[in-house]
Amino acid sequence: MCVILLLRQRQIPEKVAMQSPFLSTTSREIPIVPNRAALLFIDVQNFSCHPDGAEWASMTPAECAERRDPFLADLRSQTLPRMQRVQAAARKAGVEVMFTTIESLTLDGRDRSLDYKISGFNVPKGSWDGKVLDEIAPQGDEMVFPKSSSSVFVSTHIDYVLRNLGVQQIIICGVLTDQCVESAIRDACDLGYLVTQVTDACLTFGAARQAASIAAIKGYCRQVTTDQLIAELQP
After folding, report:
1. Which of 45, 92, 111, 123 has its CA 20 to 30 A from that of 57?
2. Where would I find the H helices in the chain?
3. What is the spatial distance between Cα 176 and Cα 179, in angstroms, rounded to a whole number?
């Protein structure tokens, strides 16, 4: 009776309160609850994660050897296999799997953010560059959110969808760790989600940038490795 009265005093519906264990939390260190969680892959797409992607098209062979080739080598040999393991474990546990990709709503990119226009990023609507990498491609009706800014929470309706799904925890993997991944983490935190970053299933250019990003974003999210997350998702 006291609990019911307290819930009414706070004007929180009893049913919602009982199903939402994180409403009053003061900790980020909460294990994943599968039916309250979503796994979000950030920008793991042909544009920047395939050797034929448009991000590399204007680079000289020397620039590709210095920038593209080490990045893709790390992605293929280490990060992508971890992403696949996380994805398989999430699907098995019943966690909603989602994707975001850089992709304009138009062919000429006139809808892009000013930053993307200045940076020269335009992945045309419906293009091969805008597709999720085959190795972690969506299955069934898993959702893909094309974005035209650094943060998926700025240029898509993902927040609306997550709330409709009852999601309170977001697991994040993807690229680049110190750019769009960081943007998603910060915005998700500000919007009231509990974020878990799978640190070794994120990637950027070089070990120094990776380490700096992981250290800088630590105060915003819970950080785990692929092995730790998979162990947590097992029944």
Report:
1. 111
2. 2-9, 14-19, 46-49, 61-63, 69-74, 80-93, 114-119, 152-155, 158-165, 182-190, 207-217, 226-233
3. 5
Percent of the chain scored above 70 by pLDDT? 90
| Spatial separation of the C-alpha atoms in residues 39 and 185, rounded to whole Å | 12
Give the domain 32-233 fold.
Rossmann fold (3.40.50)
The sign one gets for the Cα dihedral 179, 194, 42, 82 is: positive
Name residues of the chain where pLDDT drops below 50.
Answer: 1-19
| Domain spans, the chain | 32-233
Query: Which amino acid does the sequence have at 96?
Result: E
Task: Report how far residue 82's alpha carbon sits from residue 201's, in angstroms, rounded to the nearest whole number.
Answer: 6
Return the pLDDT at 225.
98
| β pairing state of 169-175 and 194-203 | parallel
Please give the Cα distance from 193 to 202 (Å, whole number): 19
Contacting residues for 235 by C-beta, under 8 A, at least 6 apart? 93
The pLDDT assigned to 20 comes to 54
